[in-house]
Write a structure and sequence with these properties.
Blueprint (H helix, E strand, L loop, with lengths): L15 H8 L18 E7 L2 E6 L9 H14 L5 E5 L12 H10 L1 E2 L9 E3 L6 E3 L12 E5 L7 E6 L5 E5 L3
Parallel strand pairs: 2-3, 4-9
Antiparallel strand pairs: 1-2, 5-6, 7-8, 8-9
């Protein structure tokens, strides 16, 4: 080595923005068209000294995909050379569909799953002149019609309900608002 040449022996650590980019490529195992970032499962990425900390909030405490998501995040980080990290499961505050990104909602709809409303409006409204609450119409992700009907409170996973469109006659899942 020539005299005066500097050799950097420190391992360069990727910045937090780069980590978020890598995590945004990790698909949700139950709905692979949406990433764990767009679904709002990855809550925070920080550094504690030289250790990377990734905070994850499952969609619900009994979600069977939680272990798979953690494994996939670990695999993605190791695949990019990150070796010193810790995954933290955070149950409080509980996950909410409000955490799904606009891109995530678009991807759900493109995939044929009606996304939950993003405006903070619950799926019910008071129908004047009637007793009780009436379901707010769910838009068909295929044709855009609001002439839809809930077939079952439970769809292909516990976080979805099964609907059908009365106009295009296609069945679809609706991602429940939580």
């Amino acid at each position: 080595m020539p005299v005066g040449e500097f050799v950097n022996t420190a391992v360069d650590q990727p910045d937090i923005k780069q980590i978020w980019t890598w995590l945004s490529e990790v698909p949700d195992p139950e709905i692979p068209v949406i990433s764990v970032v767009d679904l709002g499962i990855v809550r925070e990425v920080t550094r504690e000294g030289d250790e990377l900390v990734v905070a994850v909030t499952p969609t619900y405490s009994g979600c069977p995909a939680t272990e798979v998501i953690s494994r996939d995040i670990e695999h993605a980080l190791r695949g990019h050379g990150v070796e010193k990290f810790r995954l933290e499961t955070r149950l409080s505050p509980p996950w909410t569909t409000d955490w799904i990104s606009d891109e995530g909602r678009r991807r759900l709809a493109d995939y044929g799953i009606a996304p939950p409303p993003s405006d903070g409006v619950h799926e019910v409204h008071i129908d004047v002149g009637s007793v009780g609450r009436m379901p707010q119409p769910v838009e068909c992700p295929r044709c855009g019609s609001k002439n839809t009907q809930r077939v079952s409170q439970f769809g292909s996973t516990p976080c979805k309900a099964h609907y059908k469109c009365r106009d295009c006659l296609e069945p679809f899942d609706f991602f429940k608002r939580l």
